């Protein structure tokens, strides 16, 4: 029968001696001989370099054996309205949630816990935001992620902070952190820049029952973020629906010809109606414009035929007008030549010039006078040949 049990404890270890499941004492580094005559004994060994003392019933053990464990362990405990910042050797390493009980080994590292009361305030100090929100060891801990709501508000944006469903603060561009414990925290970002919204592929019937597919584009800007976000929620979806409805109303009350002839009046009508509605919610409509009006295939062919016929008619009209003008000019010329022999002779010489320009070789009989006087001769109206 073995009466003694030998145990070696390393420098980075501490051991708890239990006999018949009752705690007896702490074994420090070194060689120990444990007598086993008093009953069944067992030893629990802990690596104190981990600093944190992790045991299921640690709080009970520390409370019932405080005098024996006080030289080796210290405790930190938070109530339900406190947050703890855990520092080890001056470095922030973790965030402790409300109600946390944390025992640590003494003499390993300098362990310090800063306690923050969050019963009233919920804003994280600006210096802590940079430590807890930018990839540090503390910010990566599960407790920090569950305890802090971290948000960045970009330029040309505004953040609306709601606490327990109530709007509490408007956040200008920058970084912010808020304690989430014991409360609901939410931040809605509102873009204050000029934004574009497309209403595409709308199938609409005109007044004369022609089906059109219309694409509409609009630009808007949020002037009152609080009113737009709080009263509308998803204000972009609301603007889209308003544009869609106004477009259908405007197209449905006009014929196809009226729409194609004057798209500007359609744009102005939609913009006027939508602007009046959105101004109530702090949103300004800058521009509204119909980008495309797409006709069905058969209607497009018919309209092309109509346009072709119109252009052909216009071309014939211009041709007849020019012919009439030419005939009028010839008539006036003939009237002038009838009473002016010199003018008639000039026209004869012009005709002779055009004739000779087309002939490579001319044989002359009767002299040059015969060519000039007899080759081309215009007869006045009513004279004999």
Automatic annotation (TrEMBL):
Membrane topology designation: Single-pass membrane protein
Superkingdom of origin: Bacteria
Signal peptide: none
Localization: Membrane
CDD domains registered for this protein in UniProt: SPFH_eoslipins_u2
InterPro entries: Band-7_stomatin-like, Band_7, Band_7/SPFH_dom_sf
Pfam family, one: Band_7
Domain (Band): residue spans on this chain: 148-307
PANTHER family from the UniProt entry: BAND 7 PROTEIN-RELATED, BLL5629 PROTEIN
Family: Belongs to the band 7/mec-2 family.
Official protein name in the record: Slipin family protein
């Amino acid at each position: 029968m073995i009466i003694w049990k030998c145990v070696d404890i390393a420098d980075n270890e501490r051991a708890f001696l239990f006999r018949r499941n009752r705690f007896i004492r702490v074994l420090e580094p070194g060689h120990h001989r444990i007598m086993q005559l008093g009953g069944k004994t067992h030893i629990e060994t802990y690596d104190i370099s981990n600093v944190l003392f992790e045991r299921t019933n640690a709080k009970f053990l520390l409370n019932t054996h405080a005098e024996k464990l006080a030289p080796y362990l210290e405790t930190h405990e938070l109530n339900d309205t406190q947050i703890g910042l855990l520092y080890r050797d001056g470095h922030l390493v973790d965030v402790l949630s409300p109600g946390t009980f944390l025992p640590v080994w003494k003499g390993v590292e300098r362990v310090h816990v800063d306690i923050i009361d969050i019963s009233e305030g919920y804003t994280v100090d600006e210096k802590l935001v940079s430590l807890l929100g930018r990839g540090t060891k503390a910010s990566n801990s599960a407790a920090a992620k569950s305890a802090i709501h971290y948000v960045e508000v970009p330029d040309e944006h505004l953040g609306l902070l709601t606490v327990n469903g109530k709007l509490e603060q408007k956040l200008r561009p920058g970084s912010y952190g808020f304690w989430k414990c014991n409360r609901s925290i939410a931040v809605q970002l509102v873009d204050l820049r000029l934004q574009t919204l497309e209403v595409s592929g709308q199938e609409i019937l005109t007044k004369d029952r022609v089906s059109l597919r219309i694409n509409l584009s609009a630009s808007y800007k949020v002037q009152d973020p609080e009113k737009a976000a709080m009263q509308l929620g998803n204000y972009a979806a609301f603007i889209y629906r308003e544009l869609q409805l106004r477009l259908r109303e405007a197209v449905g009350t006009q014929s196809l010809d009226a729409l194609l002839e004057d798209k500007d009046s359609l744009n102005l009508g939609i913009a006027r109606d939508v602007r009046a509605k959105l101004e109530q919610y702090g949103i300004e409509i800058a521009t509204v414009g119909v980008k495309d009006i797409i006709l069905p295939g058969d209607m497009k062919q018919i309209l092309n035929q109509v346009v072709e016929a119109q252009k052909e008619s216009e071309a014939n009209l211009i041709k007849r007008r020019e012919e009439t003008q030419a005939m009028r000019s010839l008539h006036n010329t003939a009237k002038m030549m009838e009473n002016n022999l010199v003018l008639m002779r000039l026209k004869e010489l012009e005709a002779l010039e055009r004739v000779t320009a087309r002939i490579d070789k001319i044989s002359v009989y009767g002299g040059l006078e015969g060519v000039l006087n007899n080759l081309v001769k215009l007869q006045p109206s009513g004279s004999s040949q």
